[in-house]
Specification:
Radius of gyration: 23 Å
Helix content: 25-40%
CATH topology of the largest domain: Transcription Regulator spoIIAA
Number of strands: 19
Shape: globular
Strand content: 15-25%
Structural class: alpha/beta
Distance between the termini: 61 Å
CATH architecture of the largest domain: 2-Layer Sandwich
CATH class of the largest domain: Alpha Beta
Number of helices: 13
Number of domains: 3
Length: about 450
């Protein structure tokens, strides 16, 4: 075991991935060496997720597993959302935990390690400052690891929305935007590093700049990004909030070819009464008008959304409204969660009255409905040509994504032949599955035709 080596595990969403990568860079700059073998690491860091019950349980299980196999001289540090909100509980359930780091202070990871090495602590060292800040003040390391030509760029942290089911404001505090110039500097750095796809993330990207006094802050930022880093081929937007997709944002998306015609807008439900209980925007007519406007302005638009089933008070009629809405809008991608009771949220007084078997049955019905839509949409692409960003290859095939697919949450394109990772290849689609596509790179088709007698 090398005391100057470290192993890091990132759980949860892409926003955690960014913070984990940033911590890894800080450790590396301080002379530590990253290892993929935890038994050889002097420091083990687990960046936890505490968004919903199952994520909380997974984080605790991972921490307990590392603690049970901990070797003499190793340090085990828990960071992230779970520790920010449940630090004392995490420490109680994980004997052998050495340090606890909050969500907004990942940039202090080296300091925490040094303090732990300098003196013994009878209990975990807590590093949970009360005042939330955003990690942008050290923008030089605020980037995710480059994987297959794609990288995340966090533009803000925290959230000021009042969603009744969500614990993020309790964990991270209100929304804090990173300065525009810090984001642009990082985008230029990523361009120089060879990034092909830049993925903008925040708890709510459409709220970017509100705390900076900006109007239409995301649209302004996108324009400046497109101009500051013209060598980045794709810019993708995640986590838009209903009601804040403005006309200017749509116009900017249409104006710059770099900005993908892809929008991830978690709607959570489609029945106004359910949405009001969720404390979410309940104007479904706005959704129809805005999506119609986007589809007219961006004919190739790929839409992704997220729904919650089994929210307290959801009737069969309300759930049927959601099914009908999915049939009508025909989203390209849908993610679905079963309601998870979270103490301390505004929904706590509602309890968790819907039985698990009802939640599961509704989840399955919704996903079955969406699967049929997804297959039809994929089948309509057969014979068309899509640009595909290659992310991996082997055994005679390559795996990549089109503009319709965000990493980890959407589908893949299986391309014949082994192509260089990080390349964007025009690909003729030859087959369709429920969520994935298959195809042949146009250059291979042309070569094959040239060799035919």
């Amino acid at each position: 075991m090398n005391p100057k080596s470290f192993h890091i595990v990132s759980l949860g969403c892409a926003k955690n991935t960014v913070d984990s990568s940033s911590m890894a860079q800080l450790m590396t700059r301080s002379g530590y060496v990253l290892t993929d073998k935890p038994e050889r690491a002097g420091v083990i860091i687990v960046n936890t997720c505490g968004f919903i019950g199952p994520a909380k349980q997974e984080s605790l299980e991972v921490l307990s597993e590392f603690a049970s196999r901990k070797r003499k001289g190793q340090l085990l540090i828990a960071a992230g959302c779970l520790t920010q909100r449940y630090g004392v509980e995490v420490a109680r359930q994980t004997p052998g935990l050495d340090g606890i780091l909050g969500t907004r202070r990942w940039m202090d990871i080296v300091e925490v390690v040094q303090r732990l090495r300098a003196a013994k602590h009878p209990q975990p060292l807590y590093h949970l400052p009360d005042s939330p800040t955003v990690g942008g003040e050290v923008s030089g390391v605020q980037r995710a690891a480059l994987q297959g030509g794609s990288a995340y760029l966090k533009i803000a942290d925290g959230c000021r929305r009042p969603c009744a089911f969500c614990a993020i404001p309790l964990i991270k505090g209100t929304a804090v935007s990173r300065p525009v110039e810090a984001i642009l500097e990082e985008a230029r750095s990523m361009q120089a590093f060879g990034v092909r796809e830049l993925i903008l993330i925040a708890q709510d990207t459409t709220d970017y700049g509100h705390d900076l006094g900006m109007k239409d802050g995301l649209a302004q930022l996108l324009e400046q990004l497109a101009q500051a880093a013209p060598g980045i081929d794709w810019i993708r937007i995640l986590y838009a909030y209903p009601g804040y997709v403005t006309d200017r944002l749509i116009e900017v998306m249409a104006k710059y070819p770099q900005i993908l015609p892809y929008l991830d807008m978690p709607l959570q439900h489609a029945h106004p009464d359910t949405l009001r209980r969720m404390r979410r925007p309940a104007n479904i007519e706005w959704v129809h008008r805005t999506l119609d406007k986007m589809r007219r302005t961006l004919p190739d638009l790929a839409l992704r959304t997220t729904f919650i089933v089994g929210y307290p008070g959801e009737t069969e009629q309300e759930f049927q409204t959601l099914l009908d809405f999915v049939d009508e809008i025909r989203f390209d991608r849908v993610g679905t969660f079963q309601f998870s009771f979270e103490p301390g949220t505004a929904s706590e007084p509602l309890g968790d009255p819907i039985p698990p078997e009802v939640k599961q049955e509704r989840y399955e019905r919704l996903m079955e409905r969406q699967a049929a839509i997804s297959l039809e949409k994929n089948q309509a692409l057969v014979g068309k040509t899509l640009d595909v960003l290659i992310e991996g290859q082997g055994d005679g095939i390559s795996l990549g994504r089109s503009y319709r697919d965000a990493p980890e949450i959407d589908g893949l394109v299986i391309v014949e032949g082994e192509h260089p990772v990080g390349e964007i290849l025009p690909t003729r689609i030859t087959g369709a599955m429920t969520y994935d596509l298959s195809g042949v790179a146009v250059q291979h088709l042309e070569a094959r035709r040239a060799n035919q007698p």
